[in-house]
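Hi R.,

As promised, here are both runs. First protein below:
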Amino acid sequence: MERIASTPDRAEAERLTFVLITPARNEAAYIGKTIEAVTSQTVKPVRWVIVDDGSTDATPELVARAAAQHAWIELVRVPHRKERHFAGKVYAFNAGLERVAHVDCPIIANLDADVSLEPDHFEFLLARFAEDPKLGVAGTAYTQPNWDSVADSFEGEESVAGPLQFFRTTCFREIGGYVPNRLGGIDWIAVTTARMKGWTTRNFPQRRFRHHRRMGSEGRGPIGTMFFMGRKDYILGSSPLWYMFRVAYRVVKRPYVVGGLSLLVGYTWAALQRLEQPAGPDVVQFYRREQMRKLRRILGALVRFQRAEKFYLEHPGHRTD
C-alpha cells in the first residue's frame, strides 16, 4: 500500500478523533462523489453514519455498497416522509448521532451528501481544532453553481456553511445540538448560538469544498430559491437595514435585478406574515449587533475602494498575507 507522507497538519489532526454524520434523502446523483471524497481523506472518521432519510432512489443501495467495503461506514435507514423539510434533516442527524453515542470523540461533524472535498480537507480542519481550544465550530469556504462564498457573500469568516460543519463535542452539547426548524437555518442557529456562548466559529478560506446543488434550490428555480432565501433570512432575524444592503448587492448578481427583488419580496412577505423566529430573541439580538458591526466594516471597505473580494470579512486578528 502506498504510504502518504506525513505533514505538520496531520500530526496535529491525528491527536483528535471524530465521528461523521450524513443525512441523505434522494442523493443518488451526488452521494457517490461524497463517498469517494471521504474514503480518500488522509485522516478519516472513527465512524461515518449515513442516515437514509426515506429515499425513493438508489441512495441506500449506494451507501450499502460502500459500507460493505469499509467497516467504519454504517447505513441507518429511517421511515419515508412525504414532505421534505429541514427539521427532517435534524431528526435524521440525531438518528445517526444515537448510533455513535457510545463513541467518545472530541469532534462531531456534519457533512451533506452532495459535497466533494480535497483529500486533506478533514486533516486541515482537525489541525485547526488542535491549535485553538476555543474553536467550537469550523468549516471552510465553498463553491456551488454560480456561487463562490468568498466573492459572493457578506457573511465572512465567522459564518460556517451548513453542508460541512465540524463541532467540538463540548460546544455541540452546550448549544443543545441542532434546532429542528422546517423552514431552514438549522446550521446558522447552531453557529450563531455557539458564538453567543463565547465559542470561536470559523470558516477557513484556505480550503474550499464543492457543493454540487445550490443551497435552498431543491425543487425551485433561481427566482423561487431567492424568495425562499429571503423568507429564511427574516425567520433567522436579519436586521431590515442590513437587508437593504444585501438586496442592493444581489441585484447586480445573477439572476440580475430579479434575484435581489425576489429576496426582498421573500423577506417582506415573511415580515408581513410575522413568521416565527425559532432562534429566540437573545440569538436574534446578538445576530443583529453582529450585522451592524459587519455593515460598518463593509462601508469602510467601500470608502477605501477595496475590491469586492474583501467583503468576505476576515476574523478579527486573522491575516492572509
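And here is the second one, sequence first, then its C-alpha cells:
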Amino acid sequence: MLIRQHAITMVRMRVKHRSCVIFFCSSAGEYEQARPLIDRLLAREQPPHIHVFFFSRSGIEFMHARRETIAHSLAPIDTVWHWGTLFAALQPDACIVVRHEWWPGFLATAREYAKVCLIDGTRSPGTTLFKRSMKARLAGFFDRIFVVGPDDADWFSRELGITRARLAVVGDTKYDRARDRVLSNPNLISSLATDLERVFPERYRLVAGSVHTPDVAALCAAFRKLDASTSKKWLLVLVPHEVSQGKTQEILAQVRSAGLRIVRMSQLADESGPISAEVLLVDRMGILAELYGVARLGYIGGAMHHKVHNVLEAAAHGLAAACGPYYKNSAEAVRLVGEGMLKVVTDADRLTNWWQENASRTSQPGQSAERVAALCGATALIIPELDTVMRKSPT
C-alpha cells in the first residue's frame, strides 16, 4: 500500500515535465557526485523531472540538512514488483547509477523503461571470481558505462567482458562537484567566516572533516603538543562523519577528557562576543565543503583507522591538508599524496610536526586547487552522450 501511495505522489510530480531522469545513489557522497549532472539538467529551459533513490537514509538526511528540493526516496526492497510500480509512475527517459549501486531488481526493471548508464565507474581489484561473475552479469544491463580512467576501462573490458563501444573514459564528476562547491556558495562561506571571526577573533582554523574517534584522539593530542605561542592562535574545528546525538556526545566527552574546551556550532548564535574554547564541534550536516573555505589548514578523517573520506573538498580550496595512513581506498588521495599535496601522518607526533610547520602558511589557494581544476570536465563529456541516450530511450 505504501509503495502505491508513493507512486501516486510521483505521478503528480512527473506529469509536470516532458522527461524524467532517475539517479540511484548509495548515500550523500554518491549524490554529490551526481550533482554536477543534476544541476546542468535542471538549468535547462525545459528541465526534466529528477528523482533520486538512495540506498542509505543518511543521503536523505544530507538533503534535508541542506534544504534541497530535488525529489528523492529511500530505495524499496529490490524486487521487480516494487521497482515496477515506481518506474510505471515515473516513466523515466534515462536511469543513471552512480558508481556502486548495482542492484539486480533495479537494473532489470530500469532496462525495460529506459536506457541505463553508469557514471564514475572504477575497477575493483581483488574481486573474487564469483563476484566478478555476478558483476559481469549486472554490467550487462548498462547501455553506457562512463569510467574514470583508462585503467578502469581496461578492467571493465578484461574482467567483465564489456565491449569498448559501451565504455567511455571521461574522468570523475567528483572533481567537478568539488570545484562547483567552491564557486557556487560564496555567500555561505562569507557568512561562516563572519560568524567564526565574531566568536573566535584572530584565530586560524584547522578544519577536520569527516572525523571518527581515532581522528579526534590524534587531533586533540596534537593540539596539546603545539607550543604555547602557536596553540593560542588556533581553533580546531571538528566535523564528525556522523552527525547524530550519540556521536556528538561522544566527541564532546572525548575532547573534554583531553583537557580542551569545546563548544557546539549550534550554540554560537547565542554568543554575542568572543569565547575561549579551543575546539568547535560542528553539529550541522552539509557544510563541510564550505567550512574548508574558511580554513587555514585541512585534515581529512577516516584514515587513522579504516579509510579516508573525501579529500577533494579541501584540495579544491587549495588547503595544505593531512590524513592518516589508510588512504589508498581513494584514487584521489593516492594522486594527491603522490604529488606532494596531501601529507600522510601516522600518529599525533607527526600530526603536530605537520601542523607546526604549516602554521604560518597563508590562506591563498595552492597547487591542489589548480590540480582539481585541471581534472574537471567529466560532466561536460557525459551530458552530450546522455542527451543521445535519452533520445534513444524506449517509448
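A quick note on the second one: The first helix runs from residue 2 to 14. Let me know what you think.

Best,
J.
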